[in-house]
Write a structure and sequence with these properties.
alpha/beta; Rossmann fold; 6-stranded mixed beta sheet; 5-stranded parallel beta sheet; 20 helices; globular; binds pyridoxal-5'-phosphate
Amino acid sequence: MMYISTRGKTEKVSFKDAVMMGLAEDGGLLLPESVPSVSDRLEELSKLSYKELAFEIISLFTNDIPENDLKMLINKSYSAFENDEVAPVVKKGDVYIQELFHGPTFAFKDVALQLLGNFFEYILKERSEQLNIIGATSGDTGSAAIYGVRGKSNINIFILHPKGRVSAVQEMQMTSVTDANVYNLAIEGTFDDAQDIVKAAFGDISYKKKYKLGAVNSINWARVLAQIVYYFYGYFQAKKQGAENVRFVVPTGNFGNIFAGYFAKQMGLPLDKIILATNENNILARFINNGDYSTKEVVQTYSPSMDIQIASNFERYLYFLCGKDSEKVAAKMNELKTSGKISFSDEDMERVHAEFATFSTSNELTESTIKSFYEKTDYILDPHTACGVAAALKMADADYVCLSTAHPAKFPDVVIKAVGKAPDKPEGIAKLEKLEKKCIVIDNDLQKVKSFVAENV
Ligand SMILES: *Cc1c(COP(=O)(O)O)cnc(C)c1O
């Protein structure tokens, strides 16, 4: 399988090159040049364990990695999960919940970043290359990325977080990783300051080349690929538990997770509509409701990992919506850049409505959903998952599989408000306080961060 850019201005690349590249050189996103179909293999696939299924799906996209090596990478990645099923489905009340939080940092990003970390290590070793990952985080991505590459050879990771402005659990998850290749930098500033420093470091091309900088942002194809697997798995499990007309509900920020569901459907998974759930940062809901794709100010909500207005994976869907016409995609992305919005025709919107429905949830509804769901089912939702469950309960006309993107113990504040007690802490969170911590406090200063990286690679 070769990979193309959504904007059509680059040569095709192999899977390994696509993983190492992240973003395509013409500024577009990488996609496989064709969509492999498994529609005549569903029966066989439904009988597999998560790891076996992951191999069958992922190997359709990775023909430059020998089968045994791929099996080893998949086994290694998903053995880091405390649940053998990796992404189990449980029925609670009227909905199915697919728990994606059994990885080392208790959020769904582990599903993708465990595998990406292993792909990086494998490819770097083969090529005798080094990679120095730099990223800014407001919490979840940074910790999942750190756990994805901790202790790996040929990789260092520098994660900047705004000092004192990430949740206590998130901070401990990052700073308790003491492997020599992991550097936590607590910036005296905000998330935006940290993000600006990272962007500026990448913008310095000679510095970027000299120090072999790389990113772990959500646009890497390998992340989407890892996520396609759990739609298949979740669908099969829900069917086995009696579901008929399966609709996935996806708490969405960057459009990465939901794009993986859309792609699974293109591969032949017989899904009904996919439901895009947002919080008050509802650009994607506005798009689906009435074609209004215009960015607004980000507001802070109870579900911080969805407090996003620039859905970086949206361009991948746009490519399909534009009938795989990369010139049209480039024109639309240019329109977004110059005017802050993209316009869509009635015909476009008809296609969108055939695939997706949407619902956006206020803070009040997030809190009341956690409360009422707990009273009814004795099950505690995290606030991101609650946005999805609120959507499913509102629509209530199919068998909804709600993706649970985080363990509630990661976001205890709103849970305590809603149900009057803290969620039970899994051992992996409870033990964090006792662990040794490693973190460097650094000024909000580009030069200081650049020098720190240069001295430690
Ligand atoms: C990142 C994240 C999301 C949003 O996922 P996208 O792929 O960006 O749409 C939702 N919930 C949690 C807990 C997250 O960490």
